[in-house]
Write a structure and sequence with these properties.
about 220 residues; about 85% helix
Length: about 220
């Protein structure tokens, strides 16, 4: 009974890697019609990590993470159309709020002061640096940075409290998500840079894949 879930985990993760790499190549080569299919497909495969498990393991945490990843998927689709950037931002904002809820659901609100200062300080510096180019996005970006810093704070807090491998994956994931979103902000509000699509997408898919794998491992643990 243990081998089957582990085998499906490996297969789905391989499919995520293949789809993600192909998506980044298609985006780089400007085969945009193929890219627009592969980008959401990759995130759908990440969601499949938590959908393709026994119903007995459908915990509240799993449901929260699936919902958060669904908003990531919505954001992926919306951001295929640059004119709807603000709606993509809103979709990922909701996803981050749901991730916070999921992390807090595991073992309460984490109050590690040093990590809070670190993330708020980093977020504040990034916001100050981006400020001149934000224009009408000043308030939405400020709110977004505050929320993602809170998500990172709670994700790191879980690892500092529990030290398990799944919480280590979550810690790396929240840092990757912050990095990915920072690269998007630099590309949009500062200056575009070479290979930005590859940098953003690889760090983003690594982030959500780590969160999904951590959630899958945590909810399957009782049956193992």
């Amino acid at each position: 009974m243990v081998a089957k879930p582990r085998k499906s985990t490996v297969i789905i993760n391989l499919l995520i890697i293949i789809s993600g790499v192909m998506a980044m190549v298609m985006e780089y080569l400007e085969y945009l019609s193929v890219y627009r299919l592969l980008k959401p497909l990759t995130t759908i495969l990440v969601i499949a990590l938590l959908v393709c498990i026994p119903k007995a393991n459908w915990s509240i945490f799993r449901k929260i993470v699936v919902l958060a990843l669904s908003f990531c998927l919505l954001g992926d689709i919306v951001l295929l159309f640059p004119e709807y950037f603000v709606f993509g931002l809103a979709s990922f904002l909701v996803a981050h709020l749901l991730f916070i809820w999921g992390f807090v659901h595991i073992n309460g609100f984490q109050r590690n002061l040093s990590s809070l200062v670190l993330f708020l300080g980093t977020g504040g510096l990034i916001f100050y640096w981006l400020w001149p180019g934000l224009g009408d996005f000043l308030v939405p970006v400020a709110i977004y940075i505050l929320v993602i810093c809170t998500m990172a704070w709670q994700g790191i807090g879980l690892y500092l409290k529990h030290k398990g491998k799944e919480f280590g994956w979550i810690a790396v994931a929240v840092l990757c998500f912050m990095f990915s979103d920072t690269m998007i902000a630099i590309s949009k509000f500062k200056t575009a840079f070479a290979y930005s699509g590859i940098v953003v997408l690889s760090s983003y898919w690594l982030s959500i894949s780590l969160i999904a794998n951590a959630a899958r491992s945590l909810v399957l643990r009782p049956s193992e």
